[in-house]
Write a structure and sequence with these properties.
Elements lengths: L2 H26 L17 E5 L14 H6 L4 E4 L10 E5 H5 L16 E5 L19 E4 L6 E2 L3 E5 L14 E6 L8 H9 L6 E3 L9 H8 L2 E7 L10 H9 L3 E5 L3 H7 L6 E2 L6 H13 L1 H6 L7 E5 L3 H11 L12 H5 L2
Parallel strand pairs: 1-2, 1-3, 3-4, 4-5, 5-6, 8-9, 8-10, 10-11, 11-12
Antiparallel strand pairs: 7-13
The structure holds 2-acetamido-2-deoxy-beta-D-glucopyranose (5 copies).
Length: 346
Amino acid sequence: MTPSRSQAFLVLLLLSLLSSSLLYFSVLEQTPSLLGYHQHVPQRNISILLWHWPFGRSFRLRGDKCQTKYNISGCLLSDNTSTFSTADVVVFHHHELSNGRSLLPLHHDRPASQRWVWLSLEPPVNTLNLSQLKGLFNWTMSYRRDADIPVPYGQTLLGGDGHVLKAAPNRSCLLSWVVSRYWPQQARAAVYQSLKKSVPIQVYGRWNRRPLSDRKLLPTISKCFFYLSFENSEATDYISEKLWRNAFQAGVVPVVLGPSRATYEALAPPRSFIHVSDFRSTAELAAYLKRVAADRRAYEEYFQWHRTHRIKTYTDWIERLCQICVQYPSLPPNRVYEDLEDWFHS
Ligand SMILES: *[C@@H]1O[C@H](CO)[C@@H](O)[C@H](O)[C@H]1NC(C)=O
Ligand SMILES: *[C@@H]1O[C@H](CO)[C@@H](O)[C@H](O)[C@H]1NC(C)=O
Ligand SMILES: *[C@@H]1O[C@H](CO)[C@@H](O)[C@H](O)[C@H]1NC(C)=O
Ligand SMILES: *[C@@H]1O[C@H](CO)[C@@H](O)[C@H](O)[C@H]1NC(C)=O
Ligand SMILES: *[C@@H]1O[C@H](CO)[C@@H](O)[C@H](O)[C@H]1NC(C)=O
């Protein structure tokens, strides 16, 4: 990003923060404190029904989870499908709809004010059978920035976290990659096959029969200078935990393959990654990696963003569901997705 563009971006960010706090205060102002006494006007609770568990893995929703875990009040989560007729919002995770393990409640009377949310964190290659879902959903929930309720895998925030690298740590290897689902026709497979001719790559994960436990994942990755944050497909805004957790949380520099450089620039911290498309060949990329690994100052440049930015990663379905309530007042009131496939596969 050029300085003027990044300044414009900061201004926009500040403006949007300001407008959301104005919104917040206008909600508070509904309390009629001007009348001379404090009258408590309860804000209406929003009830959210999760129709089935994402990937069949259940979690506890009992108790006011949005309040106790995330300090978000008035947001009631439930998995009790018998409460369908009173739910404000019903959330459907796509995977179970697409394979037929869960059915939409099409035979129930759908309250006029109830909104149906289509939820998926998977990229288009893993999101099939969308054509059968025409004209049913009011809101979408996805990692995409243009979803009604954006739920990214991670986010860049302003304000440093103090983790600036002062001296390149003692790394015993140049580059690692963890991959479980490898198909030769993936773009990342071609880059890997070509890159490994020029540099040694430590490959872990199910594909290579070297699985890593959750506990060993980050310590193993952090032994190398670089990590291949290669997405399984190149799709609009699709940047997964391969960047936010595997690379940034391990404290290594990501080499990214996924959406365009412009998308990474908009979403990741400034000067925090190396994009595969910046190089004319994998040989050039390999030469660059070796040069940066041998040059302490050049390597440390990729950690300067910690002075001004920090990242937040998202892994909890409950936190994502609570986001519906946070955004509820500003969501489009009368939207209908006539063709989800047209939106998501574009
Ligand atoms: C919880 O949110 C309220 C406003 O909604 C805020 O005043 C309070 O400081 C928050 N508490 C914590 C622990 O963040
Ligand atoms: C589910 O909701 C129905 C209708 O409100 C209620 O009668 C039932 O007790 C609830 N079931 C559970 C397990 O909470
Ligand atoms: C798509 O739906 C068909 C039946 O309508 C089913 O046989 C198939 O497994 C589904 N595909 C996926 C990827 O879920
Ligand atoms: C760096 O690591 C290697 C092997 O892990 C070790 O032999 C060496 O002593 C370490 N050097 C420093 C300065 O810690
Ligand atoms: C939500 O979507 C349904 C189905 O398309 C539609 O009939 C309904 O009017 C929408 N709700 C609102 C409040 O717009």
